[in-house]
Design goal:
single chain; 414 residues; alpha/beta; Rossmann fold; six-stranded mixed sheet; five-stranded mixed sheet; 14 helices; globular; binds nicotinamide-adenine-dinucleotide; oxidoreductase
Length: 414
């Protein structure tokens, strides 16, 4: 709870800084400091034992001045209103950074999907859509997968909305199975986006990706795909970790073998004896460090010991604001989460565009379009950071919030 509150308030602090730097007044901050709409719903679900259990769900819509709001729905026991608020604001920033015609949205249900049957999950997913169908829709607010939700859950949600709407509405949600209008490349989009950003950052620091020494914290969806892409591109992944420990080999780990052995929760280190801790992993001598696990991993306690030349945040919120300052003062290039992990929402946008057109692109076309957006976004943020002499996080927030602020001003909302 405190952590979520911190996430919310620390996001507000950087948004305030960004709006101040852009020259907006207090009225604009007052508008953008929290979602314009925050809905809490109670969802009754018939469980397999015949009893009804009532779940609590949320949907936050940060600002829809630019266009419909967009963002994932997570199923997790720790979901809270403050977390949803903060994450909806982050989605506005991501959409602004990669220049999508969206505002930010986010949703969640307090539940533990690991303890639910497929039937219970289907009824819960459909119940969420029924509870929120009036405020969501292809031109209002478009959900997507997030923590512990997947293409199957998106399919149930799309089907439920289509029944309510009495139209087949693939554009209601993204991250769907390909046969229901999902986009090629959506499942690997976040890691591909991070890979593109790493390549651009490496060029700025004169690091050749062939043989570059990479350390990745987290071997789940984001971390494992990423390690594969970087390994295949000729980089040397010398460290990886999961919740139970870390593996280190200065000569480079056998990534294909590790991918083959990891379980569906991203665990692999338990199979080995010579492990090191996550704390040691973060401080390894390397060229590029990628936190791709959980929040608050680089703090004022260990920021002085980080040896990487570049830190790219694939996880949400892995670096505290104190640590951001320390790393920046030490000359380490820190690429923030809102930029690095924007590949997912970018390809979600492409999925929605394809649904609206009823015409579908090949994987190569999707990759080419995403690469263009991510490369442009990196350079925009890097240039603002260099010319204004500010860290890349503040630069990313300035670019991310500007479009929404301008659209709100034109509409007369601030
Ligand atoms: P995941 O659950 O698939 O994997 C998480 C990994 O982190 C696992 O290897 C797990 O063992 C490890 N881990 C968990 N607790 C840990 C701890 N205390 N110390 C070290 N490692 C720990 O999650 P994911 O989808 O890969 O997401 C990882 C991060 O990337 C999250 O912050 C997420 O919000 C962010 N992200 C993911 C996506 C995506 O498309 N998957 C998109 C945007 C952002």
């Amino acid at each position: 709870m405190t952590e979520n509150l911190n996430l919310f308030t620390s996001t507000q602090v950087v948004i305030k800084d960004a709006l101040d730097k852009l020259g907006y007044d207090e009225g604009m901050y007052d508008l953008l400091k929290e979602p314009i709409r925050m809905v809490e719903v109670r969802i009754p679900v018939r469980m397999d034992d015949g009893k009804v259990k009532v779940f609590t769900g949320f949907r936050g819509q940060h600002n829809d001045a630019v266009g419909p709001t967009k963002g994932g729905v997570r199923f997790h026991p720790a979901v809270s209103a403050d977390e949803v608020r903060a994450l909806s604001m982050w989605m506005t920033l991501k959409a602004g950074i990669v220049d999508l015609p969206y505002g930010g949205g986010k949703g969640g249900i307090i539940c533990d999907p690991r303890e639910m049957s497929m039937g219970e999950l289907e009824r819960l997913s459909r119940g969420y859509v029924r509870a929120l169908s009036q405020v969501m829709g292809p031109n209002k607010d478009i959900p997507a997968p997030d923590v512990f939700t997947n293409a199957q859950i998106m399919a149930w949600m799309m089907d439920e909305y289509s029944r309510i709407d009495e139209f087949n509405s693939p554009g209601f949600i993204t991250g769907k199975p390909i046969v229901l209008g999902g986009s090629q490349g959506r499942d690997r989009a976040t890691a591909e986006g991070v890979t593109i950003i790493i390549n651009e950052a490496a060029k700025k620091r004169g690091i050749d990706m062939k043989g570059a020494r990479i350390v990745i914290q987290g071997f789940g969806n984001a971390g494992s795909f990423l390690s594969k892409f970087l390994h295949d591109a000729g980089a040397k992944v010398i460290g990886i970790s999961d919740a139970y420990g870390a593996l280190h080999d200065p000569e480079g780990l056998d990534i294909d073998y590790l991918l083959d052995r990891r379980d569906s929760f991203g665990t692999v280190t338990t199979l080995f004896e010579n492990t090191i801790s996550n704390t040691e992993l973060l401080e390894l001598d390397c060229d590029i460090l990628v936190p791709a696990a959980i929040e608050n991993q680089i703090t004022e306690k260990n920021a002085h010991n980080i040896k990487a030349t570049i830190v790219v945040e694939a996880a949400n919120g892995p670096t505290t604001s104190e640590a951001t300052k320390i790393l920046t003062d030490r000359g380490i290039l820190l690429v923030p989460d809102v930029l690095a992990s924007a590949g997912g929402v970018t390809v979600s946008y492409f999925e929605w565009v394809q649904n609206n057109m009823g015409y579908y692109w090949s994987e190569e076309e999707v990759r080419e379009k995403m690469t263009k957006k991510m490369v442009e976004a990196f350079h925009n943020v890097y240039n603002v950071s260099s010319t204004r002499n500010i860290d890349m996080r503040l630069a990313a927030y300035m670019i991310g919030i500007r479009k929404t602020a301008e659209a709100s001003r034109f509409r007369g909302w601030a």
